[in-house]
Design goal:
CATH architecture of the largest domain in chain A: 3-Layer(aba) Sandwich
Number of helices of chain B: 10
Oligomer: heterodimer
CATH superfamily of the largest domain in chain B: Thiamin diphosphate (ThDP)-binding fold, Pyr/PP domains
Number of strands of chain B: 14
Shape of chain A: globular
CATH superfamily of the largest domain in chain A: Pyruvate-ferredoxin oxidoreductase, PFOR, domain III
Strand content of chain A: 15-25%
Number of domains of chain B: 2
Strand order of the largest sheet of chain B: 2-1-3-4-6-5-13-7
Order of helices and strands of chain B: HEEHEHHEHEHEHEEEEHEEEHHE
Largest sheet of chain B: 8 strands, mixed
Shape of chain B: globular
Number of strands of chain A: 23
Amino acid sequence: MESTLEKNVGHETTLIEADSIVIRFSGDSGDGMQLTGTQFTDTAAFFGNDLSTFPEYPAEIRAPIGTTAGVSGFQVHFGSKEIFTPGDEYDVLVAMNAAALKVDLPRLKKGGIVITNTAGFDKKNLGLANFPDGINPLEDGSLDNYIVHKMDVTKLTKECLSGSGLGMKEIERSKNMFVLGLLFWMFDEPMDYTINFIKEKFAKKPDIADANIKTLTAGWNFGDNTEVFTTRFHVAPAQLPKGTYRNISGNHATAIGLVAAAELSGLPLFLGSYPITPASDILHELSRYKTSNVKTLQAEDEIAAICAAIGASYGGGLGVTTTSGPGMSLKTEALGLATILEIPLVVVNVQRGGPSTGLPTKTEQSDLLQAMYGRHGEGPLPIVAASSPADCFEAVLEASRIALEHMTPVICLTDGFIANGSEPWRFPTQDQLKPINVTFATEPNGPDGTYLPYKRDEKLSRPWAIPGTKGLMHRIGGLEKQQETGNVSYDPKNHEAMTRIRAEKIEKIADYIPLIKPESGKDSGKLAILGWGSTGGVIKTAVRELLEEGQDVAHIHLRYLNPFPKNLGELLAAYEHILIPEMNCGQLLQLIRAKYLIPAVGYSKVQGLPFTTSELKNKILEILK
Amino acid sequence: MSTITDNVVTPKLVAKDFASNQEVKWCPGCGDYSIIKQVQTVFPDFGVPKENIAFISGIGCAARFTYYMDTYGMHSIHGRAAAIASGLKAQNPGLSVWIVSGDGDAFSIGGNHFIHLMRKNFDVNYLVFNNQIYGLTKGQYSPTSEKGKVAKSTPFGSVEEPFNPSELALGAKASFVARSLDRDPKHLQMVLKRAHEHKGTSFVEIYQNCAVFNDGAFFAYSDKETKQEQSIYLEHGKPLIFGNGGNKGIKLDGTTPVIVDLSVEGNSASDLWIHDEHDKTKAHIIASFFDTSYNDVYFPRPFGVIYSEDRPTYEYGMEHQIEELIARKGRPSLDKILSGDKTWTIL
């Protein structure tokens, strides 16, 4: 937070202009912190700030109340400048109970603001958070380096809603609105957006709507009237490129990207999916697009989900399945089928910490090698990855384009960090999007009026004749096929030829994707940071800052992980050093070193958490030394 | 979907029109030969153009069926045909979709998809060629093999109870449950026709002889000497009669079935249980004529349509929601979807 201007407003408060602020809302799973954070975010976005968010919640829906295991956090970084990460440390920590303070205090900036609900610091809560007997961090001086605001939010909410006729449970539930109102006051943000949201959400329960609005306003007034709060902050709208924006999360952008792919290709969209964290929101979102003729099927398991999608593609739709790591493993056999069928299919893997159930609500980039090699037999597939929440739109649209235009399954990798995180998106209009070319076969293509389902075009892709097409009846299957006819063939030479053709077809996609160039920095020099996926924001931030400091560093970010852009080897060779930061143990690193035989070095983080800008900058500076 | 219109005269297809150009490679004596013959015989009567028919199969001897039919078809992976067929039917409800599976494919590796397909009720036909053995992997016991089965992987006999497929299907809310066998061509043709006519998932269990690994498993139901005593042919609205010369019948004493000797004076066919395909409770009792005894009496194996029920199909529900919502709200432009409801503009 950098204050650039101070002025007095109203009654003895100081308004500080800040160019960016990070707030961490933290509380028990049941405290409504995700909603509070989302409302604050939407408001900030709506009034022109650039931003990036990081929701972080436990795997348990209701972990034991008051424990550190049950802490749910929502971090928002908003500013008047361009923002690409949720921020390393926060300026403001809202801690609804002792456990939240314990978990999230370490990343509060020195001198930062703590807003606490004292009701969450009673003997019971302190015990649940494992503070030693008799120790209360609000009273033992351990917060002396911070600006601490203590208030009994629970009691204030109860007072505000006494006589509302609501039960204690409902009143308790409104206390997050009090905090939100106070934060709106403190950061000079209007309440209108949230008031409208509450009215819409509780349209059928006006008493609940009234209670929430009353509590929200009470929070605002508490800031305005209480002399404890002497400072407010203002973050001016960001100087973003001209255009119309919306705020969007990665999973939402993925859903819209798939709808767009269906519209642009003229095919109906079919999603087969099985609920799994953190991918379920794509299923939820797409199940709402019935008016766009989107069909969603919640299958009995991950295998049925991908198989149903294969069936829909076979029938001439855009078949899609969405999942996360363990689900990806279950889909593997069917992915092999789709590979040998050479049928369009989009598989979205919202990666999370693994192996097995691992860290279901935390982020990781550890399924790259699975995407690359996770098939039985020789079965290379195209892989694309999204680099930010809004970029999920482009990534999945590109995956769909490749699937349909090259007749192949495509794996689209996102991860929990960008799937749940959000950012402002200058969304395109339909006329700015390239159509996707799909032609169904309608005429025989072989001698004597026969149909050859595996006769190939210049892309090496095969024709797509769908059931219902007169005269083109044919059989396809998992057994190896004779070239062109597609008939079952056990001929050794044919199998080798088909294996090589399938691989060459995927390699050839490189002719149809753009060449790569650095996102920032020069196209040669001392050090290039090569990234893929959700590290996009943090690498961009670190490299931009280092460029401003005069360092010789560049940022290259991969959308296409298989095949790589044709000039990637040449571009990487133009730098003395290549650093590959990944939230895994060095998976892209292996691919790059194996393919280009260059001594790239890796920088790993496998903590279920994204890199911070400062740790990445330190690593880069170490190499530049 | 393209259908035959009045002004286009299409010559009626014959059985061989449904045979593909691929050489059929089942073992000599395999029951599959009879089954494919009956399928190809009755299909012309259905009047569905070949291009509107799709066969989806999994893995196993039966699954090769797909390659031998001159329709659309996919020979997929083990156990998953039901899931693939569901996606295909959802995408194009106008197709006539047939799943061909075996006892291992349908009830073991594909068991989960089987039960959920029954409940979901896509309008597809699910033919299970049950030979009570794993044929393609060369002779292991299957989930329908009788307990004590001596096979490659159970040299001292299996210790498991088999599935009773009809009970399994009924328990999973199947809307159509039938049984037939390879060695009774006319009956099989009739059951196939009923399956085709049924709107919803039609589950047809077909007893099929594996001449190599389980020869004669069902001969008791087709051999002249034993057939009458061991099997009972169900017909809607007709009494349950079996035995040599139709000398036995089944009546219900409460919910307990009782075999009646019709040759004994005083016993009359008019006292017998009249088969009602739509009565689920009775269908459960009929389905239990398998290995369940009632008062230590074992009952003949039932063939024919055990149960049928009209209820909306999955794809109807799916399409209906879409049509209704589009009628009410209209189809949004892509631009509207891209922008969402809350936007702001930076000038």
